[in-house]
Amino acid sequence: MLVKINKSRVGSMLVKKPLDIVRELVLDNCKSNDGKIEGLTAEFVNLEFLSLINVGLISVSNLPKLPKLKKLELSDNRIYGGLDMLAEKLPNLTHLNLSGNKLKDISTLEPLKKLDCLKSLDLFNCEVTNLNDYRESVFRLLPQLTYLDGYDREDGEAPDSDAEVDGVDEEEEDEEGEDEEDEEDEDGEEEEFDEEEDEDEDEDVEGEEDEDEVSGEEEEFGHDGEVDEDEEDEDEDEDEGGSEAYILVLN
């Protein structure tokens, strides 16, 4: 489930939702209060993607513990250091975007060494990128890192799939595919059912026509039979001596 809230305080809007089903949370442009986002708590136990772009953060110390979080967007804030808490609160983080913050020295990135799962780090528009041997220094400091600012150690560009949270988009695509298959199956069943109904209706119509034909023949035959019996009776009476014959008709 994706929850997206822009340009407002989160607060009561979030606590009304069942937080354990939220996997992606976008709070871009929501203003923080003393470096803390109101309503963002550890109750988001299954959160895998969190975006806090331009929310006025100066530190990550007030972030809640989110053990399943994989991707964190923190660009365009005023963070200058204090990254120590990330490894403790976000132990499974794989993608971190700190672009547009106040990071000046390579040493401020040292706490990221404890993020064993970190594969991608973005530092665009941070002063640290102006240092000599910036890329070599960061890769040396963070050996677990695969991509820095979208490129690997050999300047190979990161694939698009690596820019998303691993597993999240794939599962959503699988769910959409299953939904489409279910809809196709339902459509197929409806078409088969309609065809069966049409066949049954055709059989019923043919059956009724056959019954009508049989009934018509029976009526015609029955009428002819009655006439023949009357004629036979008259013939017998004439043979017996020409006596008068009386026919009683009961209505």
TrEMBL record:
UniProtKB keywords: Chaperone, Leucine-rich repeat, Nucleus, Phosphoprotein, Repeat
InterPro entries, per the entry: AN32 (IPR045081), Leu-rich_rpt (IPR001611), LRR_dom_sf (IPR032675), U2A'_phosphoprotein32A_C (IPR003603)
A GO cellular component entry from the record: nucleoplasm
Coarse class of the protein's main subcellular location: nucleus
Stored SMART domains: LRRcap
Compartment annotation: Nucleus
Location of region: Disordered: 150-251
UniProt xrefs under PROSITE patterns: LRR (PS51450)
An example Gene Ontology biological process: nucleosome assembly
Composition-biased stretches (Acidic residues): 152-242
Recorded superkingdom: Eukaryota
Domain (U2A'/phosphoprotein 32 family A C-terminal): residue spans on this chain: 131-149
One MF annotation (Gene Ontology) recorded for this entry: histone binding
Family: Belongs to the ANP32 family.
PANTHER family given in the database record: ACIDIC LEUCINE-RICH NUCLEAR PHOSPHOPROTEIN 32 (PTHR11375), ACIDIC LEUCINE-RICH NUCLEAR PHOSPHOPROTEIN 32 FAMILY MEMBER B (PTHR11375:SF2)
Name the record gives this protein: Acidic leucine-rich nuclear phosphoprotein 32 family member
